[in-house]
Every structure is written in C-alpha cells, then in structure tokens.
Amino acid sequence: MAAAAAARCGRDPCGALCPLLTYLGVGYADYAVLAHVLPQPALRGSPWCPVHAAAFNLIVLLLLASHARAVLADPGLVPLPDTAIDFSDLRSAAPRKPEKSPEEWTVCERCEAYRPPRAHHCRVCHRCVRRMDHHCPWINNCVGELNQKYFIQFLFYTGLASLYAAGLVLATWLGPPGRSPVGTAAGGESGSNRIQTAHSIVLLFESLLFGAFVAVVFYDQLVSIITDETPLEKLQKKGLKEMDRGGLRAPRPKLALLREVFGRGFVLCWLCPCSCSPPPGPGYSPLPSRYV
Ligand SMILES: [Zn+2]
Ligand SMILES: [Zn+2]
Q1: What is the pTM of this model?
Q2: What's the CA gap between 120 and 78, in Å, rounded?
Q3: pLDDT tens digits for 87-101?
C-alpha cells in the first residue's frame, strides 16, 4: 500500500503537500505545548503538568496512528477481473440514460470492470472504490468503505488535540499567576516570557484554524453515515427522476449504520485505530452475483 500511496503523490501534488503540512502542524503543536506552554508559571508548578504532557502526547500518538492507517489502508478498491471482459457491446449500444439506481451493479469503462452498488471511480487513484465518500488530499487516499473509520478518527483526534492545546493556552493566560523560579534574572525572564507568549499565540491560532476545519468535516462525515448517503450519492440522487427513487435503500437504524463503519465491537473500540471487527462481507467479488 506504501507504493500505491507514493504513486498517488505523483498524480496529485496536493496529496504530498497536505500530509506534510499535517506532520509539520502536529510536530509544531507538540513542541509548543511541551516547550512553551506547560513551562509557563501558571502551569509548571501544578501537579497536573506531567498529566497534561502525557495526555497531550497520547492524543498526538493516536492522531498520527489513525492518519497512518487512513493513508495506508485499502479504502475498498474494487478488484479487477483476472481476465479482460469484453464491453464492446456496451460501448456500441445506443447511449443509455446515465442515471442508474445506486442499488445496481454497474460497469466502469475506465477500469473495464464490474463494480458493486455504491462504488465510484476515483480519478486520482484510477480505481473504483466501494462506498467512496471522496478523495482526500490530507490522507492522500480515497475515503471509502474500509478506511472511513480511520479518517474519522483522524478528524476526531485532530479536533481533540486542537481543543486541548487551545485550553492549555487559555489556562496560562486566565489561570492564577505562578511563581517565577528562584534566581532567574529579570531581563532573561521577560525575554523568555515574550517567546512563550509568541508561541502561545501561534499555537492558539493554529488550534482554532485546524479545529474549526476538522469540526466541519467531522460533522459532514457523521451526517453522511447516519443518512446512509455519501456526497457522491447525494449528487447522483439529484439526477434521478422522482419515479426512480422507489428503488433506493430502505432506511436503517442509525446505530447499525455507525457500526457498519466503526465495527461491531464495543463503542470504545471505535476510538482505537486498529481493526476490531472483520470487514463487511458482500461486494468483494469482481463479478455481479448473477455471473458467479
Ligand atoms: Zn473505475
Ligand atoms: Zn482516490
């Protein structure tokens, strides 16, 4: 999967730039918290200081782990057939109505393969992906059936880290003033304070920016799951005539839809960037069921 990720970078320069920005942003936030926020007088004397350091680093670790899983995991690529399938009759046939019900198997003429319901072709990955949500440059991968959980975890931990960092900065500003270390020269202390304040302002700005961005995407992802409709399907549905919508999926309970993405284990497992349950069964054959 690492080779596939490298190939995607070649096709989409944003796919290399955005993950790099993510690592730089996360690295800077960790450095700023440990070197400039926690040592400030309001926090350094508190017995909670090492707890904050450990908790923030744990969140950063989970953020990086979920990001790595989202980048490297198979998003749900539709397998290509072992032997070429002749689609010439489809190409030579009269142009058909382009809108199809999302519950039907379709043919991808770019992959030259059958694809199961809800699969879409990604122009960056050059493959069809099951229940494709979108291609995300921040993970340099498609968000699909098998890696959406890791993508949402990445958003969750980024939001949590942003909230935590912003909270720590505000605590140093609004909390009770601590005592200066004994023997510190007044000039050196004031210079050090200015550097700490500058890093705190940059960190707060970064946290608000990333926090607001991931909050919006996180909300969109949850809505997409509980409404059982990806952004691509919303667009597709707009193209369907009212009479064709009768064949769409029946509504399902929201918890069942969430379990389909996050796994069938305990809800706590939903926060763990690992495979806690086997992947869903249907949709793995390269051919529709009538051919197998
Ligand atoms: Zn395709
Ligand atoms: Zn893609």
Answers
A1: 0.83
A2: 9
A3: 666 666 555 544 555
